[in-house]
Amino acid sequence: MKRFYKQAGIASAADGHRVTLDGKPIRTPAKAEMVLPTAALAEAVAAEWQAQGEEIRPADMPLTQLAATAIDRVSKEREAVIEELVGYAETDLLCYHAEEPQDLVARQIATWQPLLDWATETFEAPFQVTAGIMPARQPEPALQGARRALETLSDLELTALASLTAACGSLILALAVRHGQISAEEAFSAAQLDETYQIEQWGEDEEARKRRALLLRDIEAATTFLSLCRLS
Q: In the structure, how many helices (H) and strands (E) does the chain have?
């Protein structure tokens, strides 16, 4: 789509901060006005629109996409999104350790176990670890702890957390990012631990490199979005 505006900006609204193009409100795909709770987040979304060239490239506006998803979908399907995320917790990446080789097993334990311990302490969510790929049923207290953590989030935060969880394959990693326990880069490293190990053994092809770069970008965007939700 051709760029049709000169200036992106923000304006005060009764319930937050409206993102505008040439003074007119941006609308989501479902035609809702894009009104965001913090000026910092609204300014960041406006900056994405301002940075566009002659052609508008939605793929280059991850914050805008997350905001639109929160307004159009998550606000209306909040309970379904929480259920979906609890489903991730049932087979969380961090709970499935390799049986061998031992150096990979040791690396998984060193990276993942502190985060599992943190989840147990912070959310009263005692996740169980298994070796191999056969699914292991998580105890109900772990799932209930995860649910309680999700229910405290705003629609915007829940949207970013869903993006993080999908990119990492782990709700525990997403929650750790949300609570400042780890950075976006640390979440990526933990999520990609197994693949990084394989790359160290056999090398990395161009397709894998591009896919990993996109995953890191998604994780960084969702992390930025979460932080902007909490700024004034």
A: 10, 6
